[in-house]
Specification:
Glutaredoxin, single chain, five-stranded mixed beta sheet, disordered N terminus, 119 residues
């Protein structure tokens, strides 16, 4: 059994959670007309796996008013380097292409929701 693909499937469980890549980050995040929550993660990162279900829940709950997606830093290193990602999980909240909030490490759903509701 390929555990790495199983871990990735666990983290990418929600149909409402997008995958941001080097190819689509500019269009999907920076040029988005709605705010965007971006989770920088990797398959091998246990705290990232713990945060995954929270990110997926937010994607479901905010559908239509917020984009929610994930960047796998192992596969999309250019984005991670561009934003100086040195530890994961790291979560950014973008509005009109600008970072308005940043979290490093595990973050509670309440903290994310509070920031989302404030924008």
């Amino acid at each position: 059994m390929d555990t790495s693909s199983t871990l990735e499937k666990e983290h990418m469980a929600s149909a409402n959670t997008l995958e941001f890549t080097d190819a689509n980050f500019d269009a999907e995040v920076l040029k988005s007309t709605v705010p965007v929550l971006v989770d920088f993660w990797a398959e091998w990162c246990q705290p990232c796996r713990m945060l995954g279900p929270t990110i997926d829940q937010l994607a479901e709950e905010t559908k239509g008013k917020l984009k929610v997606g994930k960047v796998d830093i192992d596969h999309h290193r250019n984005i991670a380097m561009q934003y100086g990602i040195q530890s994961i999980p790291t979560v950014f909240l973008f509005k009109q292409g600008q970072i308005v909030k940043k979290w490093n490490g595990l973050v509670s759903k309440a903290a994310l929701t509070e920031a989302i509701n404030a924008i």
